């Protein structure tokens, strides 16, 4: 199936407008991490409290007792794209903590057919080469308690690295800010991503780009202009609340909800020229803090049908998890029943309390 991936499609990366604010810039950084979170439709901002807080809300890093590590793997688009994540976090003292993580979203072994036809017009399959396109996100997190009881904040510094074979590459930089507050067993959270906007600068190899233009024998008028080299990612905000209910027989239920906001008009369930809001809700049932069953509903979108009407699509997710002596193994199946425009995915993750090795 990879043979169907067009080189020209891959080069349709987010650099088509200079100094342009794009709706879908650096979208791989918005997918999420941790199978537990996917099972709860990513409604994590208020109650996140482990190594994965570096992604969801860095303020949650303060709830780590010592140090933790995490790994995650998922496949997308019929296993064409690989999505991987690794994170580490450590408590500094009673009032502060730090963490670091890396995300990779990549497609490997893409066929480069720009030199398939030689100068005499003959097809030579030996002239086909392979290349990869990969997006990397490096995040460095710091969290600290505020002097006001119940409040804590966190900050992320992000470095974005995007590579498209030998054709183009970019660097980007940005910041996130998170806040958590807890009172009477109610938890509240606010996460603002790309609060200063995230700025990406692309470097395009003009010689390689010329090969693409020369290879366009079917439609030589298409994509003739060199793509521009900068893009800006607008801020996004997530507001959440959560509460955990304890029952008899060592049963528990965690209920959480998010309002995911973009400051532009989109196809979200609530949409205006100022802000668009996509709600998400998640539940986690637990037994003896050992086994967990999760369900979540999110990604509510207005999907235009062939007849021009709009249909509201949503993404139901399901997950299970097991935790024993500091080791957590989680699984999630996203878009259960294919209810949204997104494809379903299987997500696996592992979290380890590193203090157990001491």
TrEMBL record:
Protein name according to UniProt? PorV/PorQ family protein
Q: Which organism is it from?
A: Flavobacterium humi
Q: Type IX secretion system protein PorV domain spans which residues? A: 24-177
Which InterPro entries does its entry note?
Answer: PorV
**Top-rank lineage group of the source organism:** Bacteria
Pfam families assigned to the protein according to its UniProt record, in alphabetical order: PorV
Q: Which UniProt keywords apply?
A: Signal
User: Where does the record locate the signal sequence feature?
Assistant: 1-18
